Amino acid sequence: MDTEIIRIINKALDGGLLDKKEIMALLSVENLSPEAFAIQQAGRAFTSQLCGGEAEIHAHIGLDAAPCPNDCKFCSFAASNKIFRTHEVIPLEQVIAEAQAMEAAGANALYLVTTVHYGEEKFLETAQAVRAGLSTDVPLIANVPDFDEDYARELVRIGIAGVYHVVRLGEGVFTRCKVETRLKTMEAAKSAGLVLGNCIDPIGPEHTPEELADLILLARDFEVGFSGAMRRNTVPGTEFERYGNISYGRLATYAGATALATGPGIRGNCTHEPSQLCGQAGANIMWAERGTSPRDTATETTRGLSVDQVREIYFDTDWPVHEGPSQFYPPYSAR
């Protein structure tokens, strides 16, 4: 066993903040090596300690699909990928029904996810209608295109608890979004009082430990509510098809390493798509999915799991599931 890797793991477990070189070392270990399994085991122990030994099921509801001008090449909605030719919107009554079903099944947080075509005002109207249809304090989270601080305060006003927003791998190169714009949105969300959900994504086999480490340090600097590791599920026909995907075994090591590297101030560790291997390595936030998905070519995703299916993954990896509103976002009654 590499003594330097063990030293780095123990430093993280003792609450020390890892530097970039140390993070890169964790991310560079050989797949299926003793060091990789040590990182996974330590990530699980660390996250479990920070979160009271509980996992959460978060729920993604995609509201629309469109040829999006932000043109993120890894996304099925990218205009240049020519998968979606028109703007297709999930009917409001269906969105509300999906939210109610996921709430009833025990989802700890509900995410409403849109393309740039959906529009800010329409999102506010939809979110308020969904909120009115819910019967518990389950928090609503916005996963929407870039916005300013005025809009962030509008999200707070209608009861949105947080946003999922990140600087993606290849931002500004394989997307038409500017890194500085993504950062301004994250700053606006924090300034308005929204909890910022985060992940290192979308990871492909071509991404280097340094690229991943830079985004882990960015998440730590922003004091996000949670971070984690998400692999790219390569959409057929896109330019990333030549790279393919990383394995879930490799992603599990990244999940464990991210948990250790983000430190004791960031309690949650997410992954997507749901995976037993990543759960075993410390990922305690996974998503059920309904509606549209940037990883799918169907208007209504056939890839996404149900709340009960995610719960079964947690059962198989010995994670008790938290009951009630998320630990990572304030419940609606607290807004």
Automatic annotation (TrEMBL):
<dbReference type="InterPro" id="IPR034422">
    <property type="entry name" value="HydE/PylB-like"/>
</dbReference>
<dbReference type="InterPro" id="IPR006638">
    <property type="entry name" value="Elp3/MiaA/NifB-like_rSAM"/>
</dbReference>
<dbReference type="InterPro" id="IPR007197">
    <property type="entry name" value="rSAM"/>
</dbReference>
<dbReference type="GO" id="GO:0051536">
    <property type="term" value="F:iron-sulfur cluster binding"/>
</dbReference>
<dbReference type="Pfam" id="PF04055">
    <property type="entry name" value="Radical_SAM"/>
</dbReference>
<keyword id="KW-0411">Iron-sulfur</keyword>
<feature type="domain" description="Radical SAM core">
    <location>
        <begin position="53"/>
        <end position="269"/>
    </location>
</feature>
<keyword id="KW-0949">S-adenosyl-L-methionine</keyword>
<dbReference type="InterPro" id="IPR058240">
    <property type="entry name" value="rSAM_sf"/>
</dbReference>
<protein>
    <submittedName>
        <fullName>Radical SAM protein</fullName>
    </submittedName>
</protein>
<keyword id="KW-0408">Iron</keyword>
<dbReference type="GO" id="GO:0016740">
    <property type="term" value="F:transferase activity"/>
</dbReference>
<keyword id="KW-0479">Metal-binding</keyword>
<dbReference type="GO" id="GO:0046872">
    <property type="term" value="F:metal ion binding"/>
</dbReference>
<dbReference type="InterPro" id="IPR013785">
    <property type="entry name" value="Aldolase_TIM"/>
</dbReference>
